[in-house]
Write the structure tokens for this entry.
Amino acid sequence: MGAKKGWLAATFFAGTLLLAGCGSSKASNQKQVKTDHFNYVYVQDPDNFDYTVSAKQNNTDVVSNFEDGLLERNPYGQLTGELAKSWSVSKDGKTYTYHLRSGVKWVDSEGNTHGTVKAQDFVTGLKHAVAAKSEQLYVVQNSIKGLNAYATGKTKDFSTVGVKALNATTVQYRLNKPETYWNSKLTYGVMYPINAQFLKQKGADFGKVTADGILYNGPYVLANFTSKSVLKYKANPGYWDKSHVYLKAVTLTFDDGSNPDGLYKSFEKGNYTYARVYPGSAGYKTVLKQNKNNVLWTSQDSSVYNFTFNLNRQSYNDTAKKTDQQKADTRKAILNQNFRLAVQFAFNKADYNAQVNGKIGANKGLRNELTPPSFVSIGGKDYGTQLQEDMQNTGFSDIKLADGQDGTYQPTKAKQYFVKAKAELKDQGVSGPIHLDLPVDEKSSLLLNQAKSFKKSVESTLGKQNVIIDLQLLSDDKYNAATFNATTGKTSDFDISNGSGWTPDYDDPSTYLEIYNPVSGANLHTLGLDPTATAGGSASNAAAIKAVDFDQYSKLLAKAEAINTDTAARYKAFAKAEAWLLNSGIVIPTNSGGAGAIVSRIEPLSGPYAPSGLGAGRYKFLKVRENAVTTSEAKKARAEWLAKRKQIAEDRPTN
């Protein structure tokens, strides 16, 4: 939302560019464009350039282009040396030593040099992340030796934290326990360096959303930012690896989502490098008439967008509820597992998705798990296979969880669960109908159509006399304040929301599942909760956690986290935890990113492939061509890419 990348805003403009073609291979006659420029849209202003702190995608996608870390993802998803030219791991798997490239320059937005990147800059970066109360700190807080004690105030001595500059070009990290996925955490901003002299000079203005708010060591620097207007980057002329920076400039224009068909029109004029197109819109006929042979479907990525229930709603700035009784009744209903599952099984995800992808793409991108089925493997089988087995003794025993199909839309099952819920709620003095406030960005026609689809399917299945979805039409700013930009349970202002999602921070199932850990979860606020470790003993927070038996989930996570070196056993344990969470109905996985129709002048698969961490929003490695990609070209490129990925996996060392 982390992915974070993290916290994801609900949007339909971006999509991972792993292309799968459909249609013929006849070339399109498109306008010629500058192949060293990239032009498209962005949907939300960045509000923080402190790359060690912010976990929201509207910030991380921007600053990931300005900064390099120790490692990066190449176009095949390999972790390769970025600021680190080499590294080693101790035999016990708990000490990692990185040797830096020499002479990598810190520059300002005008290209003036401010020294070189030193090992001490990584120490400065992590110490600052703690002081600035980083939203990203959870990624490494329990990994690096002594960091949790320092972050929680148990010690004031940062020298006890397991990060050290051994010399000017060698930085070392000591971990609490082996983490086979540790290196995948190094693509995340919390692990990036900061120039101490510049940090001291800027003080509270470090990370301000201006060109001079940070120093740069990455492929681009900020050329211009005007709120709700334009974001422009220019290539960093002193970048150490500029041979892999093919674009001189990147220009992103603000788009509020009110005219989705306008994306294609701008592409046709040569103004945009690529464009999302929408088979569910009236303008799609024009797309097919002019570019039938160039409509490409992107592959599903590793992100997941969810509906979430607010288990402890405290803010009612925008609501259809008129009495305290209605608020209390809705709260009791949401805390009832049978009610939550009834809503989930009444939700027609295919129709919801068709509002964007049309009937032809109604199932494309649908996701029924939090952790993508193929994110990791267990004994040669996908994680999803194990999860499917673990769901056998739940209400999902007869439901297929695979991607690309609507496994959970089960109207008969929904009605059965509601009968149970109604009887239980009646005993608690609840009378219907239950009103659920669902915030919607009033200017985003696609989001509005999806909200209407959700309302229609739930109300028609369960009956309006039982459940009413009250769409709260809000301005962009109010919508974001109630959902995506809310940072605490108290400020999450909804009963149910589809306003955010998640992208993994590192290569382990815990990156999806720990975000809802009631003790420390980074995304608990999307459930209206705050971590018990920092909630200050809130009675309503504790009551909500107890009501849904959330401590059981915490225990399952703890069992999985205790397994450090046996990855198969670890993944199986996390699958059991996810099975509990899915069966609770608290979170409803809906769809992934990607899996959208586009027309594009981007050379297929030329950008970085980042299944976790930062990288998907970077323009390094990306190539632009003059003419639109044809479906046959995309198909050929993907086949070659998959073959290369397979070869890399086969050649990878086993130790």
Summary: Confidence is low (pLDDT under 50) at residues 1-10, 12-30. The longest helix spans residues 631-651. Residues 178 and 301 are 28 Å apart (CA to CA).
